[in-house]
Amino acid sequence: MDSKYCSIGLTNETKNGFKRKKPTASICVKKVKLLSDSISNCLQNGHEVSKNIETHVVKKNSDDLQEARRKLPVFMVRGRLLEEIRKNNTMIIIGETGSGKTTQIPQMIHEQRLEGTGLIVVTQPRRVAAITIALRVAAEMNTEVGNIVGYSVRFEDVTSPRTKVKYLTDGMLLREAILDPLLSKYSVIILDEAHERTVSTDILFGIVKLAQKERNEKTINPLKVIVMSATMDVDTFRNYFDSCPVIYLEGRTHPVTIYHSKTKQEDYQYAAVCTIFQLHTTTPADDDFLVFLTGQEEIEAVMYNIKQIAKETTGPPIRVCPLYAGLPPAQQMQVWKETPPGTRKIVLATNIAEASVTIPRIKCVIDTGVVKERSWCSATGAERLVVRSGSQAAGWQRAGRAGRTAPGAAYRLYTAQQFNTRPLHPTPEILRCPLAPTILLLIAAGVEPSTFPLIDSPPRDSVTASLTLLKELGAIDSVENPKLTVLGRKMSSFPIDPKYSKVLLSAPEYGCLEEALSLVAVLSSENIFYTPMHKREEALKVKRKFISPTGDHITLLNVFKAFCKATLKKQWCKENYLNHRNLTYAYEVRQQLLAICQRLNLTLSSCGSATDQLLKCLLSGLFSNCAWSRSAGVAGGGARYVTGAGGAASLHPAAALHAASPPPPALLYTELLHTRRTYMITVSAIQPHWLQQVAPDYARRCRAYR
Ligand SMILES: Nc1ncnc2c1ncn2[C@@H]1O[C@H](COP(=O)(O)OP(=O)(O)OP(=O)(O)O)[C@@H](O)[C@H]1O
What we know:
Elements: E1 10-14, E2 30-32, E3 45-48, E4 54-58, H1 62-70, H2 73-76, H3 78-87, E5 90-95, H4 101-111, E6 119-124, H5 127-140, E7 149-153, E8 156-158, E9 165-169, H6 170-179, E10 186-191, H7 199-217, E11 224-229, H8 234-240, E12 246-249, E13 256-261, H9 268-280, E14 288-292, H10 296-311, E15 318-323, H11 329-332, E16 344-349, E17 362-367, E18 370-377, E19 382-389, H12 392-399, E20 408-412, H13 416-420, H14 436-444, H15 460-473, H16 486-491, H17 498-510, H18 513-524, H19 536-543, H20 552-565, H21 569-575, H22 580-599, H23 611-622, E21 626-629, E22 641-643, E23 648-651, E24 666-674, E25 678-686, H24 690-694, H25 696-701
Helix pairs in contact: 4-5, 6-7, 9-10, 14-15, 17-18, 17-23, 18-20, 18-22
Bound molecules: adenosine-5'-triphosphate.
């Protein structure tokens, strides 16, 4: 990247805030008129809240917070809104980003005690949103989080018997539904950010619908369901929820000016860096920036570039904060930490910051317009990560991260015409993701998958492929009339993909539970290697001491074992070019998984240096992730493989076996990355005959293997 930046050319499309398509009049059942207003900036201080999360999202002065609340559009119509909530058992609420839906509506319901003896629960698609919103609401209610207001996310529950307002991830509520499909302890369920259409939210729509019906029939305490978003496809939702009332909340807190690039950008990372510095030299130091990128590697590359360019550029000092799902929670919270006056914070985030969250002082959003999505091809069974353009709804949500505590601007690094040709809403995850984890949860909750009410039904062949996988994993007894097996019941107790819970449950048989726990924990974390661009050669040289000739899985295990033994961990990671945050996160995940294994009475054993045992154990869950060499005599990186699903794939250049000569005849990989070519990521060599031994049912139907 050139160290000089240049203007990419942006055009001001909308001077006075959002240019929004209004919802269609036909479905405008009720309309509550609001005034738009502004709120004062809320000053923030850091304070210690939960066991292991240092947070910076909370209060300074309770009067300031109350004043800010009163100025929110939602707060101003609370009388009428509460009347509607009292009257209706199901309703849809639509209101501008930042108008106060998520923080205020649950509080308003609680202030009137509409929840009675039950709890109010609010779902969020992402953990960072559930945590930061709970902290904010606790501060507004002048209480500690975990008291009246709490949150529950994977690997962390900060609630108590006193909790009445609970924020949680949609995945957590789904897990609760396995144990209690009527969700009886809740009297109000708010499904927030409904537009995101995650698999978990889509399933929850069905679960709450069924629970509401059954609770009415059995005259158990009634259940109120509220579905909320700023950018949802109202017609679809209203049809699904039996023509329930829709409430439109008008008004927003602060205007956001939208700018589009005048021309198409070839390289969005480059365009992002140019725009950052263009704004850096022209905007006040206290305006913070939020930049949307697609993943950890990209964020680290842009972070490096910013730091390099900043050395040669005039302007206020810069603090760059990354924000992506795999970042350990304490590190994510750094984004909410105040910077010294006169310092500019630049947050580089994936779409985990796209909806719900408020990062105070963000005045400029830089939207690259792209997102990395997991998708799945049911025809080939290949699961892959693809970088693609986001929807219009995503564009509005991203812009909505500015203008929350003061007027703001969103700089879109794509043209207005490109924006207008994008789909209005994202493709529901259920139509593009592997369904095995969700189907397992549904069956565990006693639900019949084929009659379950879904907004959009996944293609029949996706369902069959997922049921077949679950059968081969031993989680269900048949594809036609699936019932959970004893193994399947145990698998559903782990908050991880069934492929990996199968690995843990098989580990005692292979005498390697210690190693399997470490490996699954590391695979649940983001990249543990740190390879700075300017010291690439040195980092790769240091990495060599951990490399196993069998490939990446044992290499990862070697690193993790050494990390656990190291005394000065931070220093040790620095010397070895390893990511301390991600290794610490893996360590915490391992503790949680270990606790579940202990509850299930699994025997803890170690295979020591017999790593074949661990690879066979890994194969017991990941048998559908095998590939076979089709290029005898071609060395390492050039070798072509065919996957179990029949597709062509190559070793990723970062794989330990990339240069192996001769190329191993059979491989086991963790993930396929689909760019111009299909690459296998995190790969180990296996013996071809292991598949027959470990997963005979799958081996029989796998054509590539035969
Ligand atoms: N952590 C925070 N720090 C400062 N202000 C906050 C914080 N959280 C919320 N706010 C204020 O409360 C307002 C309402 O936030 P809330 O999340 O309830 O809006 P929303 O309507 O749910 O938005 P969205 O549709 O984007 O999720 C924000 O615009 C902001 O002014």
